[in-house]
Design brief:
This protein is mainly α and 110 residues long. It has a single domain, classed as PDCD5, DNA-binding domain (Helicase, Ruva Protein, domain 3, Orthogonal Bundle), CATH 1.10.8.140. It is built from four helices and no strands. The longest helix has 43 residues. Keywords: DNA-binding. One of its GO terms (cellular component) is cytosol. This is DNA-binding protein Mlab_1482.
């Protein structure tokens, strides 16, 4: 391989890396915009106490909080929310969503 071929390979590699970096930045920007839209909707449809509870849940269970947020946003977009969600209503929603834990009673026989 000559110097020209190596330079061309390096140039192509640099272009690929730049394109990949730009694509990643675009993806991050889209995610940030989507998150901002979700937060905007939540501010419109939830009382401050309910948002605070959801933020507290996000600290311990981020995937679960994201799922709850998506459900609330879909309820708001479908027009099924007639008033702001209060803390008590959020609690009720959470009890419906949280999967029931199976309890195991282990008894020693013998």
């Amino acid at each position: 391989m000559g110097d020209d071929e190596l330079a061309e390979i390096r140039r192509q590699r640099m272009m690929q890396m730049q394109q990949q970096q730009m694509a990643e930045q675009d993806q991050i920007q889209r995610q940030q915009q989507m998150q901002a839209q979700i937060q905007s909707v939540l501010m419109q449809v939830m009382e401050p106490e309910a948002r605070e509870r959801l933020n507290t849940i996000r600290l311990t269970k981020p995937e679960f909080a994201a799922s709850v947020e998506q459900q609330i946003v879909s309820l708001a977009q479908s027009g099924r929310l007639r008033q702001k969600i209060t803390d008590e209503q959020l609690r009720q929603l959470l009890t419906q969503i949280v999967p029931q834990k199976k309890e195991f009673n282990i008894r020693r026989v013998g």
